[in-house]
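Re-running the complex after MR caught last week's input typo. The corrected sequence lines follow. Everything else is unchanged.
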Amino acid sequence: MGTEPAPAPRDDRERADRLDAADPLALHRREFAATDEGLVYLDGNSLGRMPAAAASQVRAALEEEWARGLVASWERWVMLPRRVGDAIGQLVGARPGEVLVTDQTSVNLFKLATAAVGVGRPDIVTDDANFPSDRYVLGSVAAAAGGELRVIETDPVDGVSADDVTAALDTGVGLVSHSHVAFRSGALADMGTITAAAAEAGAMTLWDVSHSVGVVPIELRRSGADLAVGCTYKYLNGGPGAPAFVYVRDDLQGRLDQPIRGWWSHDDMFAFASDYAPAPGIDRFATGTPPILSLVAAQAGIAMTARAGLDAIRAKSVSLTSLLIELADRDLAPLGFTVATPRDGERRGSHVALRHRDAYRLTRALRDRDVVIDFRAPDTLRLGVAPLYTTHREVAEAVAVIRDIVVTGSHEAYPHHRAGVT
Amino acid sequence: MGTEPAPAPRDDRERADRLDAADPLALHRREFAATDEGLVYLDGNSLGRMPAAAASQVRAALEEEWARGLVASWERWVMLPRRVGDAIGQLVGARPGEVLVTDQTSVNLFKLATAAVGVGRPDIVTDDANFPSDRYVLGSVAAAAGGELRVIETDPVDGVSADDVTAALDTGVGLVSHSHVAFRSGALADMGTITAAAAEAGAMTLWDVSHSVGVVPIELRRSGADLAVGCTYKYLNGGPGAPAFVYVRDDLQGRLDQPIRGWWSHDDMFAFASDYAPAPGIDRFATGTPPILSLVAAQAGIAMTARAGLDAIRAKSVSLTSLLIELADRDLAPLGFTVATPRDGERRGSHVALRHRDAYRLTRALRDRDVVIDFRAPDTLRLGVAPLYTTHREVAEAVAVIRDIVVTGSHEAYPHHRAGVT
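Corrected-run output:
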């Protein structure tokens, strides 16, 4: 890990190394392409690292399938949205035929939310910790349906609760939509209880699992969830802007109408028929031709996640975030940091938010020390741990480097945050 | 061109070779990755061949940008939709800032059509030669706005005319939307006259240039067009499912509201603000995170097209389709084929439709003779010529092989077309 003296205290290093030595997932780290030596990458919650197999599969798609196979390769490509969808389905507790890879998360949220409120109750419930893009989309969908978006105010650390949702429900609400893991605090919502509360009130549920898929076991069917969307470029390591997915519970597929009637959603897409007839199953929620190279790249990380197993991934995730919180409490709280993520491991996803008034400058200074984390305005540092490649040692190093920067004041040489700049 | 005796008559071969020898674009063929030796690929109207530079740029995006640069590469990637959009803009007669790469064509058509009819006139005019997906999407947009889709019946060869459009217009029509080149017959619509007729009646225009971009000079601004969409995987050789683009004339960008309010359309996307504020310019028509690997791949073909120049490309396209029609008239008409594409070179795009009752079986038989073309149910063969790599010799060979198959009856060993199978 680099040539400079490691800044983490020796006791922490030894403890972290012991945890890493006992890590059943340790071998997966070698399946990722190399990064710069010494890099501590704690931003897999934004863009996951590249599985080496993703590159080789894309190369084959370029050289064999596109260059040589040409249009005949569509016989294989046309099945990818379903095939990769089913692979994701196994990670989210869905049956075959309930998940389809298509479009981007915002487009999918639009399609499913519009379909859901089209059933006749135009108001939508969400919460103020939901991803802003989700709130923008849900707001426009509710308005177009003649309803409104009801935004629950939540605790900035703990996120939305089932009680909050229950209190917001009445017969005007057709849809309840939240992020499974809050993008800022990392709070993990109680999918089962919230879904049950919504169903009790006659509303459908639409979960955004972008920040939980691949790192938290998800049980969409078992929880009774109606609909879900998610992306593949965070903990699934699908690559930059890799296509997103939709989940629609099988009994709902035939009775929801999504508004973007592209030919890939047609019952017989290659008939080029004059009239629209929606596919009976999950294909109904497709639109146009999917970006094949990006879709091919997404397969490797999904397969690796399935091989590693979500129980082992979850156990390591909690171990990593627990260590991070423990060290932050000990070493960073005295320097003005606040842990802004639930302390109960069962109540958080796989990133930890630390608040500090110099968060932006710290993020910049950390990059120059080869520690990559996220900044979220105005004062939040997000440190994501990805159990397939993140080590306990990296967590200990990151905390030590943050401490070193603040103690020495080296971040003060960096400019303050300006709106519009990340 | 292969080891078997070439079936084209010697006179045709010599004439084709003379035309190819004088072709100013001939050198561009070498910029594409190799295909199987002897392959005659006339399906670039469906999926263009792979520029070798596309593969090397994707490899760099994988190995350097994703694997090593990781999340920091977003500083570069975030500009790609605008940058590649501007490169396309130069091919469609747009100004910088009027074209954005985003989503897929059906999604873009939905966004722009919804924005246009949102202005208050809910009916949409299209034609029965428009791509089915466009008709499906436009139909659902009109219905959601409380209007209807008015579908002009057209001549199956000549496509939509300005007179047709004028006759369909009244004060209920907010939008006129057609394909610039008809996907089946190849008819090239008169963009300028139709756009003027729509404007005269107070309707906006939304052109789908998927079958013309990169092969027909397009003058969106000069024609007065309001809106356009198109894909990059046909004559732009962008790769399978490469992302699509939108054109919104600059004076309209600030006053149209598109319905899918993803964070990439926000005025300050990285602020993660609670409230939605649309970007003032073309970014307003973005949605979510674009598929970067597919977007990177699209750049090489766009750049090659710009270098080659659309006037030279168009001249060669007309030369290739003229030769194809001439040989089809001489050698295939006596065998039951009909040319179903305008005979005036100025009135067609870059593919030729031949109708024959055994079209499906012929398409299959041709593939086994290394001639790749498209079948469109029930009876159409589509032969697309892509001037950056298609040769006159290939056109002569294709006609000769079709003739040979029909004369020998070798296609009769193949199964008939069944609905749902391509």
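None of the earlier attempt is carried over here. The first helix of chain A runs from residue 10 to 21. The first strand of chain A starts at residue 40 and ends at 41.
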